[in-house]
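user: can you give me the structure for this one chain? C-alpha cells are fine.
assistant: on it. calling the predictor now.
[tool input]
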Amino acid sequence: MSRSRVAAVAVALVAGGLAAPSPSYAAEPGVDVPGNAWVTIQGHGYGHGHGLSQYGAEGAARQGLTAQQIIDFYYPGTAAATVTGTVSVKITADTDNNTVVLPRSGLQLSDLASGATWTLPANGAKRWRLSAGAGASSRVSYLTGTWHRWRTLAGDGAFRAGGKPVTLVTPAGQVRYRGALRSVRPAPGSKRDTVNVLHLDNYLRGVVPREMPASWSPAAVQAQAIAARTYAAYERAHPLSNTYQICDTTSCQVYGGYSAEHPDANAAIRATTGRIQTYAGEPAFTQFSASSGGWTSAGSVAYLSAKKDPYDGWSGNAVHTWSLKLDASRIERLWPRIGNLRAIRVVSRDGHGEWGGRIRTLVLDGGRADVTISGDDFRSRLGLRSTWLSFKAARK
C-alpha cells in the first residue's frame, strides 16, 4: 500500500496555495539507551500518509460521507473529471525472459510488428510460449511432451482471447488477466517484459480489492476506485518505460489481474466509471496509504497537504496507534558504525500532531560514532509502519 514513487513532474506550489508551511519544531531531548536494553517504539499510522488514508476513507464513510466528499477531503483543490482508454502494466512476477500462457478457447496471437493475427489451433498444446528470436523477431512455441516451434513473428507478440481472461504462467505461479499479454523487449538484446494492456476500468478490477477490503463501506471502496483510477491516469501520462506505463507492485499500485477481482469492488468501479481527479487540467498524483494516523503528510504537490484527519481513528483501525518492542542490539546490527547504542535523538519532525509529528531526521548516538539518518531510512530498515514515532528505552 506504499505509494512512494516521487512524482515524475512536480506541480509547483503557488503562493497562497494549499500546502501550509510546517510549524516550527524544537528539537526534543534524546532518549538514553542503557546497555542490554529494550527500545519501545510507539507510532501512528501506516505508510507515508500522503493523500487518502484507506482506513480514514472507511471511517469517513461510516460517518456518512459520500465517495466524492472523501476524495475532496483528501485531495483538496482537485477537480472531478472523466477518462477512458487503456493502460499498460508490467507483470513483475514474470522474470523468465518469455511469456507463457495456458491454452483456452478463442486464444489469439498477434504480431505487433506486422499486425497479423492468428487464432491458435486446438492441437493438444498444454502451453503456448513467446520467446526471443533472432534480431527483433519472436519465436512462438507450444508444449505437448516437449516444446515445438509453431512460427516466427517479425517483432514482439501478444496473446489475447477476445475479452476473456488469459492465464499467464510465471515462476511465481499462474494468474489470469483480462486484455492482452504482450511479450516485449524494451531495447535490442534486452530481457523481455510481459506487459498486460487492458481497459483502464478493467485494470481497476484487479487493483481495488488488492488495495482495500472490498467488503468495506461502498463509499470508501468507491473513493479508492477514484483514487486508483486517477493514479493510473497520472502514470499513463508519465510512463515508467517505453514498453509499459505502470507496475503491479506497491511501488505503483498492487495489481492482481482477473484472479484478484471481487464483485463488491467491481460494483464500486462501475459506480464511478471513468471518474478521476485533476489539477491544472491534468490527472492528479493521487498517492494513498493505509492509515494517516490522524494527520496526513505533505507530499510533492500542492493538493497532497498536511492536515488533521478526523476520520482515521475509528475503532477498527488497529494501526492508528501501535507499538513495537525491539532489542537495541537490532539497531546496532543495522548500523554497526555506532558500536553500542547510547541514545536516540530526534533532530527534526514535520510539526504536525502528537510528539511534533513524523520524524524527518534523527541521530543514533553510539559509543564509536554518531549516525544521522532520515526518518524514512529508519522506518525502512527496521520495517516500521510509519515515521510518526516516539521512543522509550529500558534495561532488560
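assistant: here you go. Helices lie at 54-62, 67-74, 200-205, 208-211, 218-237, 263-271, 328-334, 375-382. The chain is about 20% helix and 30% strand.
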